[in-house]
Amino acid sequence: MGFFDTFFRKKNSGNKAKDRLKLVLVSDRAGCSPEIMEQIKNDIIEVISKYVEIDTRGLDIQITQTESDGDNGNVPAIYANIPIKEMKTKGH
Amino acid sequence: MSEVIVVTSGKGGVGKTTTTANIGTGLAKLGHKVVLIDTDIGLRNLDVVMGLENRIVYNLVDVVEGNCTPVKALIKDKRYPTLFLLPSAQTRDKTSVTPEQMKALVDQLRDDYDYIILDCPAGIEQGFKNAIAGADRAIIVTTPEVSAVRDADRIIGLLESEQLRKIHLVVNRIRMDMVKRGDMLSVEDVLEILRVDLIGVVPDDQSIIVATNEGEPIVGNSSQAGKAFENICRRVTGEEVPYLDLQADGFFKKLASLFRRGY
């Protein structure tokens, strides 16, 4: 029992601590007030709308963590899911 | 060239004052001229950790308010002739001093001392702002706990936004036995999360408590923590010092004997 506990324990508390820390720091670091998030969202809508018609209700923008291309581990990233209703391809 | 170092952590009770006392003493031991400033106004502690509490006449607020000169307020350490302490005021509060006044004070001390080390109060309010105002570099003390690492992260963010970018980390009170069995964040975990440069790892060591009881810094003595602090001091001066193999000696042997008994 003790043997199995040691080797097959799902997750030890050190790893749990690390995972919890990573999660809590994502929102700590973003330090973005809801108002600023709203402004970012509106600006993105404005820019994208020049080129495509987007579904503003289905829009989802949040700050998350992602692995960086360099080797400095995870970095905060703005994640945006912007559903497109129609491409504005008038010129073609 | 003098250097002003702030020792900070965000969270209280992680070992800022002990670290300040030991780094200051260690640097003096290496022959440098050092001033330690306790910036925790209202909760003075560095004096007792240094064992100098009976010698206080003037304090930080007296100096800032111009009631006495900095030199007059400095307490000479009883062990090392190049080590001095500027104690904090016990009966005042953090608003008695402004960041501008602190900066002016440390700039005044730069001419005469190699290292000016500021013991920062816990928190991120006025006391923190005072302590970092004149600093060239920061040493952040954390312990391998979620709360302490989270606060350290916040502090790093605040320091960077104040353009203080020379930041080093001390991981204090690590227990290698617990890290080994996966029940404590490792130094690597903490570094991966905080992404700052490491300057020292101090094991959880009973000799720190004994030393604090006696008002004697332990830097340089034969304990694991004493050696760790000595190495930190050398790294502060720019020397490259390999990290202690905490598993390999006393610590691990003790652990091994514990296991042998257990099984």
Describe the structure in brief:
The complex is a heterodimer of chains A (92) and B (263). With 92 residues, chain A is of the alpha+beta class.
**What structural class is derived from the secondary structure elements of chain B?**
alpha/beta
Largest sheet of chain A: 2 strands, antiparallel
**What is the SS-derived class of chain A?**
alpha+beta
The overall strand count of chain B is 8
Q: How large is the count of helical segments of chain A? A: 3
Mind sketching the topology for me?
The complex is a heterodimer of chains A (92) and B (263).
Chain A: H1 2-8, H2 13-30, H3 34-49, E1 52-54, E2 60-67, E3 74-81, E4 84-87
Antiparallel strand pairs in A: 1-4, 2-3
Chain B: E1 3-8, H1 16-29, E2 34-38, H2 46-50, H3 60-64, H4 70-73, E3 75-76, E4 83-86, H5 99-110, E5 115-119, H6 126-133, E6 137-142, H7 146-161, E7 167-174, H8 176-180, H9 187-194, E8 197-203, H10 206-214, H11 224-236, H12 250-262
Describe this entry's structure for a reader.
- The complex is a heterodimer of chains A (92) and B (263).
- With 92 residues, chain A is an alpha+beta fold.
- Chain A has a domain at 33-92.
- Helix content of chain A is 45%, strand content 25%.
- Chain A contains 3 helices and 4 strands, in the order αααββββ.
- In chain A, the strands form 2 sheets. Chain A has a two-stranded antiparallel sheet with strand order 1-4. Chain A has a two-stranded antiparallel ribbon with strand order 2-3.
- Chain B is built from 12 helices and 8 strands.
- Chain B has an 8-stranded mixed beta sheet with strand order 3-4-2-5-1-6-7-8, with helices on both faces.
- The model of chain B has no long low-confidence stretch (mean pLDDT 93).
- The A-B interface holds A 6, 12-15, 17-18, 20-22, 24-25, 28-29, 31, 72-73 and B 145-146, 149-150, 153-154, 157, 178-179, 181-186, 189, 192-193, 195.
